[in-house]
Every structure is written in C-alpha cells, then in structure tokens.
Amino acid sequence: MYLDLDQARGSDFRLMTVRPTAATWSVLVPFFNEADFLGATIASLAAQSVAFRLILVDNGSTDGSATIARDAAERHGLDYLLITERTPGKVAALRAGLGWVRSTYVATCDADTLYPPHYLAAAEALLVDPGCVVAGAYFVAPGADEATRAAKARSFLAGARILSRQCHAGGAGQAFRTAALRAAGGFDGDRWSYVLEDHEVINRTMRHGAMRYAADLWCTPSPRPRNRASIRWTGFERLMYAASAPFAGDWFFYTFLARRLAKRRLSSDRIRERPFQGAEGTAFATTYPVR
What we know:
It contains 8 helices and 9 strands. By secondary structure, the protein is an alpha/beta fold. A 9-stranded mixed beta sheet has the order 1-4-3-2-5-8-7-9-6, sandwiched between helices. The longest helix is centred in the C-terminal third of the chain and has 29 residues, at 235-263. It starts with a strand and ends in a 28-residue tail after the last helix. Residues 1-18 and 273-291 have low confidence and may be disordered.
C-alpha cells in the first residue's frame, strides 16, 4: 500500500488507505532527481533481512524519480509510502518523512547509496541497548574487497573511540531510536536550515544517549560524479568540531558554524543543485501529521 500525498499550496491533501504496520523499522529515503540511482537503492533495501516500512519523500523531482520509486517499491513487494514534499531541501524532506514514522527505529538512507542485506539488522544490534539512541555506518567505496572493507572498519572505529562525542557517520548511514529523535526535535528547518544537517541532528540526539558504530554496519555510495558546488565544511571547521563537540556542541553549530555556512550561502536546498537545472522555488508543501 502507499500514501499519495501531493498537495498544492492551500488545498487539501489526498490520503490513500494506509495499512497499519507491525514492522520495527521505518526507512526514510528523501530524493530529488535521482532517476539514475534510486532503483538500485530500493533494490538493496528490499533485500534487508528484517521487515520495514519504506517512506519515500519526493522533494520536487522533475525527472520521473517518483514514478521510478513507486514502480520499484511495487516490483519488490515493499510496504511503502510515497510522499511529495516540494519545499526545497533535505531538511524539509526528512521532516515530512519523519512525520509518518510509526516504528521503534528509523533509518535515514540516501537515494544514491547501496545497503548490504544485513544493514538494518546490524543497526538494530546496536540500538537494542537502551543506552544507544543512534547507530552510525561507515562508507565503503564501490567494488572494495573484504580486506579493504576490514581496514576501513578498523580505522573508522578507532576514530570513533577517540572522538566519541562527535558524529562520524553521514546522513546516508544513520539509524535512530525514533523516540529519541523526536525528543531531540527531529529535523527542523527553523532550527537548522543549512547543509550538514546530519551532524547537527546528532548533536541534539546525543543528549538522550550514545551514538555507536560496528564493523558490520556499512554502506556503499554510488559511483556518481560530484557536479555541484562544494557543500562540505572546511578543515578548520572540522577541527573546531572535534575540539568543541564534547562540551560546546550547541555553540559550535548554532553560533560558529551557522554563521559561516550562512556567509557561504550553504542552505539545505543547495544539495539539490545540478548545473543543468535552473533556479528552484517553493511550489508545494505537505502537512506534517505527527510530532
């Protein structure tokens, strides 16, 4: 079954029958013009060893991505919702998707990333510990062999032990206790409207417990060209994050980093940029049903 939520500004939305779910997991996949990669991502999620509800959030795609997402979910027999959120930016898309989560755990997955069949099970093995509220995955390059992956795991886990109060995983590889994520305020564009929302939300969520990692929790970004302006933080900003995360995370994000990202105009919608597309504006928006 699916949720078809396509709401023009000021009109009522249309809600199809939504089947109740007993799944422990929800998986959020926000996407914007990911026609080349979305089908493979959904196929990798369909192979998961645990049941889940897939929540697909179309962030105003113009390349048929929504149709690809719906067809792939149907083809693999997934329990899914398809939501349209045309307010530009990943933060808005994640906020819309989180509103429909009804499960104990929720994973945020990128539309251009592949996930091994044990991905959710490995995250759950960490999250079943009451003290753990976030599980983080490391990235393995496409085509990496087992020895390379093991070396990457050792390096990643060593860094996470040394700098335990900061986030070491990107948004494509994060999984949460839903209650902790909501208690932290979820994804909130009024609070944080910039890129690097994956690290900012961890800063808030870790007030409710620990973030943990494991050697068998990993995923693989698709081999795509990086054809947009840089949306990353600088080396100096990374250094400041490492130094301040244990005791001054709020200052780092909301005073130090926010001002710097604002000057570089790195708002959340910048991640949507492609050189062959024109300027985008807000056209549609969904209602957020749950807080």
